[in-house]
Design goal:
- This protein is 34% helix and 24% strand.
- It is α/β, with parallel strands linked by helices.
- The protein folds into two domains: 255 residues, Spore Coat Polysaccharide Biosynthesis Protein SpsA, Chain A, CATH 3.90.550.10; 36 residues, no CATH class.
- It has a five-stranded mixed beta barrel with strand order 8-11-9-10-12.
- A hairpin with a 4-residue loop joins strand 9 and strand 10.
- Helix 3 runs antiparallel to helix 4 and helix 8 packs across helix 9.
Length: 297
């Protein structure tokens, strides 16, 4: 019987240089999509998948993340006195009291693999998630989010699972690309992973994106992994090492991913989530139609 997955690691130590100057003093994970920051969407996804311990691997200038998930009693009292219960519910207990939050400093910018290794004392000997908040994934009309979908695969096969998405051929150099062997309609056995290959080197168009469900053996692989591309400890390199010891599955998830680490992807997410927001969707749709009509003139 597979062990429960109770811990999620959020590597949030990056500088967010693509969004400067907005991210000069504020974390990129706090960029809002309509009325919630990216990191809150990621945390809500983890909590819905049954996570009990949230591990944020942070760095300097990331205090806003910790503050966001903390209680603000002055604001809560103000909303209570102004009789705004709906707003009070939105900010109160964003992380329920049944879940624990742990904040760990990544002392040097040594990559995603190093960030995961920083969380090793909390992870222990259990499977865990790694969630990149930059990848905002919407699963409209589905009962299960991406982590829950991956959890089903894990329970069936009892091994590590990474989320996969087909990407345009000219985008393969932005991702870790897998050499897959089809197991089921959406499940692939991964034979190898190439980190940011050229279009000529890419073994497929299936890219690893920011959702991982990893067995604890990956931690010993990370300890053995030296610095790779960019002088960083790459999680992809550790996964390649894991492949020599244990099976690794890729899951082509159901849902729409928005790359919010990219300005265009972030704007797309803001527009799409705005069109679904219960308070804004009608007025926002009317505005967009009016704007498009002006462009067509």
């Amino acid at each position: 019987m597979s062990k429960p997955v109770r811990t999620a690691v959020f590597p949030v130590a990056g500088l967010g240089t693509r969004f400067l100057p907005a991210t000069k003093a504020s974390p990129k994970e706090m960029l809002p999509v309509v009325d919630k920051p990216l990191i809150q969407y990621a945390v809500e996804e983890a909590l819905a998948a049954g996570v009990e311990t949230l591990v944020f691997v942070t760095s300097r200038n990331k205090r806003a993340i910790e503050d966001h998930f903390d209680r603000v009693y002055e604001l809560e009292n103000e909303l209570l006195e102004r009789e705004k219960p709906e707003l009070l519910e939105r900010i109160k207990d964003i992380i329920p009291r049944t879940a624990a939050s742990v904040y760990i400093r990544q002392s040097a910018a040594l990559g995603l693999g190093h960030a995961v290794l920083c969380a090793a004392p909390v992870i222990g000997n259990e499977p865990f998630y790694v969630i990149l908040a930059d990848d905002l994934i919407d699963v409209p009309g589905k009962e299960k989010n991406v982590l829950q979908q991956m959890l089903d695969v894990y329970h069936e096969y009892d091994c590590s699972v990474v989320a996969l998405e087909r990407v345009p051929h000219d985008h393969v150099s932005r991702y870790g690309i897998v050499q897959p062997r089809k197991v089921d309609q959406k499940i692939f056995s991964i034979e190898s992973i190439v980190e940011k290959p050229t279009s000529d080197e890419a073994p497929s168009d299936l890219a690893v994106i920011g959702r991982y469900l990893l067995m604890p053996e990956i931690l010993s692989c990370l300890e053995k992994t030296g610095r790779g591309r960019g002088g960083e400890i790459q999680l992809t390199d550790a996964l390649e090492l894991l492949l020599s010891q244990n099976p690794l599955l890729g899951y082509a998830f159901e849902g729409k991913r928005y790359d919010c680490g990219d300005k265009l992807g972030y704007l797309e997410a803001c527009m799409e989530f705005g069109l679904k927001h219960p308070e804004l969707k009608e007025e926002f749709k009317a505005y967009l139609l009016k704007r498009i009509a002006l462009l067509d003139r």
